[in-house]
């Protein structure tokens, strides 16, 4: 499995985001239950609280398919989604 860092830049009203947030949290909960979501959170320096995920997937294509199911992505609230393979080298997520 490859670890990926995902950043989201939103292009939506706070009301549109609030309306879909429960569905989005359900989406994140499913990824967590599957063991692929390592972390999810809001970036504090963006105007709409842009977001970041750390997840695992077999490859980039699989990660992109997974992210396509995000309600914010499906409904066009994401202006930019950046995905980068990441190799943690030091810290709690590094095995042995």
UniProtKB/TrEMBL annotation:
Pfam families: YCII
Highest taxon in the source lineage: Bacteria
Location of the YCII-related domain: 3-86
Family statement drawn from the similarity comment of this UniProt entry: Belongs to the YciI family.
Name of the molecule in the record: YciI family protein
Classification of source organism: Bacteria, Bacillati, Actinomycetota, Actinomycetes, Micrococcales
């Amino acid at each position: 499995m490859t670890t990926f860092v995902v950043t989201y830049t939103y292009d939506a009203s706070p009301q549109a985001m609030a309306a879909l947030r429960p569905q989005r949290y359900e989406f994140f909960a499913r990824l967590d239950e599957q063991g692929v979501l390592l972390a999810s959170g809001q970036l504090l320096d963006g105007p709409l609280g842009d977001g970041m995920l750390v997840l695992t997937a077999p490859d980039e294509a699989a990660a992109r398919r997974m992210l396509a199911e995000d309600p914010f992505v499906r409904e066009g609230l994401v202006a930019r989604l950046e995905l980068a393979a990441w190799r943690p080298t030091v810290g709690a997520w590094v095995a042995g």
